Amino acid sequence: MRVRIGDWSRESGIGSGRLAAAALAALLWACGGDRSGQPAPPSTPGTGSAPAARILVVTHTEGFRHDSIPAAESGIREIGAESGAFAVDYCRTADDVRRLLTPRELAPYRAVVFANTTGSLPIADLEAFLDWIAGGRGFVGIHSASDTYHDRRAYLEVLGGEFVTHGAIVEAEVRVDAAHPAVAHLAPAFRITDEFYRFRLTGGSRTTLLSLARDPADGAPFGAGDPLAWHRSHGSGRVFYTALGHRAELWQDARYRRHVLEGIRWAAGT
Fold first, then answer.
1. What's the gap between Cα 212 and its chain centre?
2. Is the dihedral of CA 216, 219, 224, 225 positive or negative?
3. CA 113 to CA 91: how far, in whole Å?
C-alpha cells in the first residue's frame, strides 16, 4: 500500500508529527499487523490457520502399560493435524500428571484424553480435576482409561464404567446403537479385531454408541449386548469413552481413527 502523505497533509491539515503517527497506523492496519495488543480474531479450522482447540493427551501409567501407547500418541496428533480440529500436548510422566492436571494448568485446554492410562494416577486433587470437566470441558477415555482409578468411585462415575475382565484378542461383530458422529460411519454393524472389555457400569445415565453384537469367542464370560463405547454428561462437561484401542494396529485403521477423531471433537465441542 502507498500512503500519499503530501496529498493527505494538504487536504486534512494534519501537522507533521501527527501525520507521521497517522501514516504509520494506516500502514500497519493495511498490512494486517495489529500492534494494539488486542487478541486476533478466532481462526477457522482447515484453512491453514491455528487449530480450533488444544487437547492434553495423558499416557502415564501406574499399572499395566500397553505397547500401543506410542501409536496412540502419534495417531491422535495426526488426526488432529489432518482434520485441523485440534492440536495436542502430552502428559507422560508422574511429574507431568502432578503439574499439569490442575484447573490452573488446564485452563488453555478444551479436553483431556486418557489414552490407555492405568492405575491410580498421581493427580494432586482428583475432585478439582473432575470439577474442571463439569465446568464445561471435555473428557475422552480410550480403552484402559476404565482400568484407571479403581479405588476412586468419583472418577468411575464420571467415566461411566469400570473394567472387570477381558479374554483373548479376537475378531468380533460390533453393533452401532445410536446416531453420533463417532459411529455414523460404522453403522449398522462392523467387524474388528481387538481385546474386548467387560464392564461394571457406574454413574448415571449414558448413551451407548457401540456394543457387542454377540458373545465373542475370546474365553471371557458373556459379552452379547455389552457396551463398547458411550457418551454422557458430567455437569456442563462432555464425556466420551471407547473400549477399543488395545492393539497398535488399530491406529492404522481409518475406521478407528475417525471414531476417535469424532469422539474428541464432540467432547471438546469443536
1. 24
2. negative
3. 10
Q: What's the pLDDT tens digit per position in 114-134?
A: 999 999 999 999 999 999 999
Q: Is 190 left (phi over 0), alpha (psi -120 to 50) or beta?
A: beta
The whole-angstrom separation of Cα 257 and Cα 50 is: 21
Quickly tell me which residue has 497533509 as its cell: 9
Three cell numbers written together for 158: 464420571
Task: Count the residues in the chain.
Answer: 270
pLDDT in tens, 42-58: 333 344 455 579 999 99
Q: Assess contact for 110 and 270: CB atoms under 8 A.
A: yes
Alpha carbon distances (Å) from 164 to 161, 197, 217: 9, 7, 17
Residue type, 39: P
Evaluate if residue 73 carries a pLDDT over 70: yes
88's enclosing H/E stretch is strand 87-91
Say if residues 128 and 103 touch (Cβ distance below 8 Å): yes
The kind and range of the H/E element at 8 are: helix 5-12
